[in-house]
C-alpha cells in the first residue's frame, strides 16, 4: 500500500488551504454597524425601546406569542428552569449530547438533571429513553435541537404529559435551531418554552444574547421578572420612582445595543437559513456514502436550520484515532471542532453522577467531528473541507 502520509501538511506537505477556515463565523454588514451606531448615539443603551422592538420582531418571525430577550443563551436557560418551577428535590431529564449549560441550568435552580441517551442517527434525545429516565420527581424535560434539527416534540409531549409525578414542562433548547421547522411548525411553537442562543457562532447574533419563546402568558411574566432582579414591573411601565421586587431575580437583561444588532440581523434570517441549508445539502451530497465517514440522519418532516454540520469517523477503517485526524485537518487549514464532550463525562458531573451511562452518546462522541459551516462560506470553501477530509482519511486508511 502506498504511504500517503508524507503528503499531509502535518508532515510537511502542502496544505489544502493556507489560511484557516473556521468552523463558525458571524455575518456582519454595514447595515448592522449602522444599527448599532444608531443605538450608541441614542438616549438608551439599555432598558430602552430597542429590546421590546426586537422581542416583537422575534415573536412575529417564530410565531410565538412572546419572546423574552436575555443577556445570553445560558441566562435564558436559567430563566426557563426557574419559570418551569424547578427547585430542590425536583429533577429534569435532558440529553448528554449538548453544551454543559443545558444541564447546568437545572442545577442553578437547585434541581437535579437526569440524562437520557440519544438516537444514533440524529444524536437527538430519544423519547423512549426519556420515558425510562423520568421519575415521580421529574418536573421538566429539556430537549436539545442538536446541530439545528428539532427533536421529536410530539412524542416528548406525550411523555411529559404522562410523567408519573404529574405533567412535566417541555423545554426546547433551540440554541441551534432558530428558523427550523418540524412537520411545517416552526421552532418556538413546539414546546412550552424554547430557548435561543444569539452568540456569534449561532444563526443570528446580538453579540452575546439569548431569548425564551413561549405562548404562555404566565411563563412570560415570570421570565421578564426573573431577568430584571425579580422586579414586578418593567421600567417603561412605571409611573414614578417606586418599584417592588417580588421574587429573587438576576440582572440578565439584553442591552439596546445588542437588540439593535439582532433586529438588523433578523431582516436577513431567511437568507442566512437558505445559505446554511445549501451548504449542508452540498456536504451531504459530497460525503454521503463516504468510505471513512458517516453523515447525519434527518428525521422525516424535519427541516433543520443547520447550526453546524457534523460527521462521524469510521474508526474501524482507519489506523489512527480521532485526535490524529483532527490535528491533521487543522494542519490542512480546516478549522474542525468537536461538539460535544458528553455532559456526564466532565469532571464536575463525573464526580457528582458517577453512575450515568449513555452508550450511544459516548460512542458517537469518540468519532465526532464538526465541519465548518457559516453564512459567509462559499461552495469552494466546502469543497476544500471535503478535499481535506478525503486527503487525511485516505492517508490514514487501515489495511
Keywords, please?
399 residues; alpha/beta; Aspartate Aminotransferase, domain 1; Aspartate Aminotransferase, domain 2; 2 domains; seven-stranded mixed β-sheet
Helix content: 25-40%
Give the CATH superfamily of the largest domain: Type I PLP-dependent aspartate aminotransferase-like (Major domain)
Q: Note the main sheet.
A: 7 strands, mixed
From the helix content, strand content and strand pairing, which structural class follows? Answer: alpha/beta
Rg calculated over all Cα atoms: 22 Å
Order of helices and strands: HHEHEHEHEHEEEEEHHHEEEHHHEH
Span of the ends, CA to CA: 8 Å
Q: How confident is the prediction overall: mean pLDDT?
A: 97
Described by the principal axes of the CA atoms, the overall outline is globular
Number of helices: 13
CATH C-level label of the largest domain? Alpha Beta
Q: Which CATH architecture of the largest domain is right?
A: 3-Layer(aba) Sandwich
Strand order of the main beta sheet, please? 1-9-8-5-4-2-3
What percent of residues are in strands? 5-15%
Return the domain count.
2
Q: How many strands?
A: 13
Unreliable segments (pLDDT under 50, ≥5 consecutive)? none
CATH topology title of the largest domain:
Aspartate Aminotransferase, domain 2
Amino acid at each position: 500500500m502506498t504511504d500517503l502520509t508524507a503528503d499531509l501538511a502535518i508532515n510537511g506537505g502542502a496544505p489544502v488551504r493556507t489560511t484557516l477556515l473556521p468552523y463558525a463565523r458571524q455575518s456582519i454588514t454595514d447595515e448592522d454597524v449602522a444599527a448599532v451606531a444608531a443605538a450608541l448615539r441614542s438616549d438608551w443603551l439599555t432598558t430602552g425601546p430597542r429590546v421590546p422592538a426586537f422581542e416583537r420582531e422575534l415573536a412575529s418571525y417564530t410565531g410565538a406569542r412572546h419572546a423574552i430577550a436575555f443577556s445570553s443563551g445560558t441566562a435564558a436557560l436559567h430563566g426557563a428552569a426557574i419559570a418551569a418551577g424547578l427547585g430542590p428535590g425536583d429533577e429534569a431529564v435532558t440529553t448528554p449530547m449538548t453544551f454543559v449549560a443545558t444541564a447546568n441550568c437545572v442545577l442553578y435552580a437547585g434541581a437535579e438533571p437526569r440524562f437520557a441517551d440519544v438516537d444514533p442517527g440524529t444524536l437527538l434525545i430519544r423519547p423512549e429513553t426519556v420515558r425510562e429516565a423520568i421519575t415521580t420527581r421529574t418536573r421538566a424535560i429539556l430537549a436539545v435541537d442538536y446541530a439545528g434539527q428539532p427533536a421529536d416534540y410530539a412524542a416528548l409531549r406525550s411523555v411529559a404529559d404522562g410523567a408519573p409525578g404529574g405533567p412535566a414542562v417541555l423545554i426546547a433548547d433551540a440554541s441551534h435551531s432558530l428558523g427550523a421547522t418540524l412537520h411545517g411548525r416552526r421552532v418556538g411553537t413546539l414546546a412550552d418554552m424554547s430557548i435561543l442562543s444569539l452568540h456569534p457562532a449561532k444563526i443570528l447574533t446580538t453579540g452575546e444574547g439569548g431569548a425564551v419563546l413561549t405562548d404562555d402568558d404566565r411563563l412570560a411574566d415570570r421570565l421578564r421578572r426573573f431577568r430584571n432582579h425579580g422586579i414586578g414591573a418593567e421600567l417603561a411601565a412605571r409611573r414614578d420612582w417606586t418599584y417592588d421586587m417580588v421574587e429573587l431575580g438576576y440582572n440578565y437583561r439584553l442591552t439596546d445595543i445588542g437588540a439593535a444588532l439582532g433586529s438588523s440581523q433578523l431582516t436577513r434570517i431567511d437568507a442566512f437559513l437558505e445559505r446554511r441549508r445549501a451548504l449542508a445539502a452540498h456536504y451531504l451530497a459530497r460525503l454521503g456514502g463516504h468510505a471513512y465517514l458517516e453523515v447525519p440522519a434527518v428525521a422525516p418532516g424535519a427541516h433543520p436550520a443547520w447550526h453546524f454540520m457534523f460527521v462521524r469517523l469510521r474508526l474501524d477503517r482507519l489506523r489512527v484515532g480521532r485526535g490524529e485526524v483532527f490535528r491533521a485537518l487543522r494542519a490542512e487549514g480546516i478549522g474542525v471542532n468537536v461538539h460535544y464532550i458528553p455532559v456526564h463525562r466532565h469532571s464536575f458531573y463525573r464526580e457528582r453522577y458517577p453512575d450515568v451511562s449513555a452508550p450511544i452518546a459516548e460512542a458517537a462522541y469518540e468519532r465526532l467531528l464538526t465541519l465548518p459551516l457559516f453564512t459567509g462560506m462559499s461552495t469552494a470553501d466546502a469543497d476544500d473541507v471535503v478535499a481535506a477530509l478525503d486527503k487525511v482519511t485516505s492517508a490514514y486508511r487501515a489495511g
